[in-house]
Amino acid sequence: MTKRILALCRQAPYGNALAREGLEAVLAAAAMDQVADLLFCGDGVFQLLPEQSPAGIGQKSLQRNLQALPLFGVEQAYVCTKSLAQRGLDLEALSQGQLPLVPVDDSAALIATYDSVLSF
Amino acid sequence: MTKRILALCRQAPYGNALAREGLEAVLAAAAMDQVADLLFCGDGVFQLLPEQSPAGIGQKSLQRNLQALPLFGVEQAYVCTKSLAQRGLDLEALSQGQLPLVPVDDSAALIATYDSVLSF
Amino acid sequence: MSLHIVSKSPFSSTALSDCLDAFAEGDALLLIEDGVYALSGRMSERPAVQPVYCLAADAAARGLQIPDSVTAVDDAGWVALCAEHNPVVSWFK
Amino acid sequence: MSLHIVSKSPFSSTALSDCLDAFAEGDALLLIEDGVYALSGRMSERPAVQPVYCLAADAAARGLQIPDSVTAVDDAGWVALCAEHNPVVSWFK
Amino acid sequence: MKFSLAVYSAPHSSQAAASALRFARALLREGHQLYRVFFYCDGVHNGSSLSAPPQDETDLLAGWQALQQQHQLDLVVCIAAAQRRGVLSDSEASRLEKPAANLAAGFELAGLGQLADAVAQSDRLVTFGG
Amino acid sequence: MKFSLAVYSAPHSSQAAASALRFARALLREGHQLYRVFFYCDGVHNGSSLSAPPQDETDLLAGWQALQQQHQLDLVVCIAAAQRRGVLSDSEASRLEKPAANLAAGFELAGLGQLADAVAQSDRLVTFGG
């Protein structure tokens, strides 16, 4: 029986390593046929801003990791609408690329449907 | 010419090492005759709660470090009154011991009087 | 029903408020490490959710009293809460 | 006059609000690292203090536009701000 | 019940590393199984053989090693996170042409797949971070 | 003008370590002096010789070492913070009976007094943490 796994992504990219290492864990799990769903909430929604150019701070763009997700069977990602509203962001303003974003109003109900939650 | 140094202590004790390592830095500086003043603000005011008993979590009490300060020439410590109010705390409820606590309403004006500020 | 474990102070982190936004009827909240500062001052009087647990050792470490509205647990009780709930969701930043 | 350097997001840390509580007339604010998220959304329209600077590289890294009310600086400008102000106060948690 | 733990924090920097060890001890005492402890992010420093806390501070490394011996625990340090942070086994040190190795006895380096496997094989995953 | 830096964050965990290196380069480029960089708290990991970031990530250690050589920088790692976290010189490793040393060339271990001295001797102290 395959477990339903949720990766809860709450960190902004670049300031600390958790956003990057979280996505790397999700990619590694998917490569082993343990496909996790992703929920971006809190500052994690900033991972989805378009046109990130971190070369000037000596980092690689996280958007490459995000865009790699569909290649590993992650077909969509959930985004907490309350977190967007708190930050004055619209779902339409985010970078969708190959990864369709699904707005979630009730993250409690979503979380309750999973067997395991990985926090990043 | 001796510099006026302020240690800005903003971290709660025990959850991370910064509260402890900050006090150790202040003690080491004082031992070298570089006496710093201390300003407790934000969650740093929790360092001053009485009756801390961290043996159950495998840590030493930070209050020993605080009480050692006067032996090294640190005669008082400033406490941000706004931070206390945000946390529902009274200055009288804090642990004064050998280290008298001085309430500060205008931390901006206090900070402006120093040559150097060490953040912890 | 989920167990939400919060380990950061509500006065300097949004971990607790983010957690409460994701808290469903039937879930439980456990305060550990600096998360126990939610017991300080005003926040302790009317907990936003029920039930709320806290690690007794973390509250004692920090000199905090545990109000009647919150249930203190030891390490065995912590394990039991994790065994009784699923998923276990950690809020640590 | 102090230079206050804030490196954490105002949406998940109290670093910026704590800093603003300690901000005096004549001081300057520099946003770096995740501190530049203060430029996002509503907070950018009416800065609580003046002057506000931000590191251009950190804003570009995160895909943020710099509003007219905020002055972008490069690394040389960052050094100049530190040289022009004293003390330099870092707000990083 | 079968538990796995994910530990993201270094000892002596965050309390989370000490909390993880206490939780591991408690669940074993309560008769549960500990399938794996996966050390990730800054948690890889828990596997450093070189940490030397003062005598009057808790030695988490000794604590993990004692528990490992007693219960044959699977203490896995993420190899990619450990490389970035300078926690190397003998073979990694020679492969990367580094002057020394510092992975402590009782710990092993392995890939991120071991985290996914732990999630799949365990009834509960509890994360210690921050 | 004479600067000193205090660095509290490990590379590859927080951006602050990379920010400190960029700031150090910029201030030297602008003709200022860098009296000392003091690595404290998790910042001691900047002085680990064993970190091996992937080829396509920034190698902060190489960056600090190059700057040190070019400008004879004083890169001081706090000895107490480093012991707790497992960053040891040869002499510390043998004194503590540890199996290896990992303090990188260009860095030296010294006491917290060097932070106080840096504050006293410099026009500006800039802290990088979080």
Which structural traits does this protein have?
heterohexamer, C: 93 residues, alpha/beta, Hypothetical Protein Ychn, Chain: A, five-stranded parallel β-sheet, 3 helices, globular, E: 130 residues, 5 helices
SS-based class of chain C: alpha/beta
Helix content of chain C: 10-25%
Q: Strand share of the residues of chain C?
A: 15-25%
CATH secondary-structure class of chain C: Alpha Beta
Largest sheet of chain C: 5 strands, parallel
Task: Find the CATH topology of chain C.
Answer: Hypothetical Protein Ychn, Chain: A
CATH architecture of chain C: 3-Layer(aba) Sandwich
Q: What spatial order of strands do you see in the largest sheet of chain A?
A: 4-3-2-1-5
Q: Element order, helices and strands of chain A? A: EHEHEHEHE
Annotated CATH homologous superfamily of chain C: DsrEFH-like
- The main sheet of chain C orders its strands as 4-3-2-1-5
Largest interface: E-F, 29 and 29 residues
Structure description:
Chains A, B: Belongs to the DsrF/TusC family. The complex is a heterohexamer, with two copies of chain A (120 residues), two copies of chain C (93 residues) and two copies of chain E (130 residues). Chain A is α/β, with parallel strands linked by helices and 120 residues long. Chain A has helices at residues 18-31, 63-68, 81-86, 107-111; strands spanning 5-9, 36-40, 77-80, 101-104, 116-119. Chain A has a five-stranded parallel sheet with strand order 4-3-2-1-5. In chain C, 25% of the residues lie in helices and 22% in strands. Chain C starts with a strand and ends with a strand. Chain E has a five-stranded parallel sheet, sandwiched between helices. In chain E, helix 1 packs parallel to helix 2. Chain E starts with a strand and ends with a strand. Chain E has helices at 16-29, 60-71, 79-85, 90-95, 113-121; strands spanning 2-7, 33-39, 75-78, 107-110, 124-128. The interface between A and F is small, with 8 and 11 residues.
Produce the secondary structure layout.
The complex is a heterohexamer, with 2 copies of chain A (about 120 residues), 2 copies of chain C (about 90 residues) and 2 copies of chain E (about 130 residues).
Chain A: E1 5-9, H1 18-31, E2 36-40, H2 63-68, E3 77-80, H3 81-86, E4 101-104, H4 107-111, E5 116-119
Chain C: E1 3-6, H1 15-21, E2 28-31, E3 52-55, H2 56-61, E4 70-73, H3 75-84, E5 88-91
Parallel strand pairs in C: 1-2, 1-5, 2-3, 3-4
Chain E: E1 2-7, H1 16-29, E2 33-39, H2 60-71, E3 75-78, H3 79-85, H4 90-95, E4 107-110, H5 113-121, E5 124-128
Parallel strand pairs in E: 1-2, 1-5, 2-3, 3-4
